[in-house]
Amino acid sequence: MIEIVIKLVPFEEKEVLRHLMQFYLYDFSEFAGFDVNRHGRYEYKFFDHYWTEAGRFPYFIMVDQQYAGFALVNRHGVLLVEGHSIAEFFVMRKYRRRGIGEAAARHVFAQHRGDWEVRVAESNGGARAFWRQVISGYTKGRFDERAMRGDSWRGTIFLFNNEDEAG
Among 1, 2, 6, which Cα is nearest to 106's? Predict the structure, then answer.
């Protein structure tokens, strides 16, 4: 039996998250077209904000005491004025397709009750299928799925409220 632990990233461990972010941004560059900077590293504009601004929550996903990924939660939605948003979500390839991502998502949702928005880039079909399955199961089918092709977002946005969810 594997042990999955989701924990807030303390300031003292933020450099570990910065390193994990490189793997995520590399994977995501397939969909977003990111390039590395002149130092050969990917930049994440809002990284430091997770320790300096209210309403931002960085989580490690740990499996058997090993780093397996992360989730970044904030309150900056495209459609929601108030509510929570999965800004970034990453499970390392070794840990995918084992229920770890779903367990992590459910845990993160349970930490923040209320309205939720989960956005998926238009070209990321795998992530769209993952989030549809996870959110459908978590909400027992009570969610809204919207396709957007506007200036602020191109992709799918999942909306739900977990105020009354058992999780």
Answer: 6
- Closest to 33 measured CA to CA, from 41, 25, 24: 25
Q: What is the pLDDT of residues 80-93, one digit of tens each?
A: 888 999 999 999 99
Tens-digit pLDDT profile for residues 93-117: 999 999 999 999 999 999 999 999 9
Continuous segment of H or E residues that includes residue 80: none
What angle is formed at CA 109 by the lines to CA 29 and CA 85, rounded to 5 degrees? 45
Q: How far apart are CA 66 and CA 33, in angstroms?
A: 29
Distance CA 88, CA 105 (A): 11
Geometric angle at alpha carbon 37, from 33 and 40, rounded to 5°: 100
CB 13 within 8 A of CB 50: no
Stretch (H or E) spanning 117: strand 115-121
Structure tokens at 80: 């929601």
Pairing label, strands 84-91, 115-121:
parallel
